[in-house]
Amino acid sequence: MTIPAAQRGALSIADRVISRTATAAAREALHDLDHPTATARATAVTRRGTARLNLALDLPYPIDIPATTDAVHHHVARRTEGLVGLPVATVRIRVERLHLPQAEAGDDGRVQ
Question: What domains are there in the chain, each with its CATH number?
Answer without folding.
Answer: 13-99 (3.30.300.20)
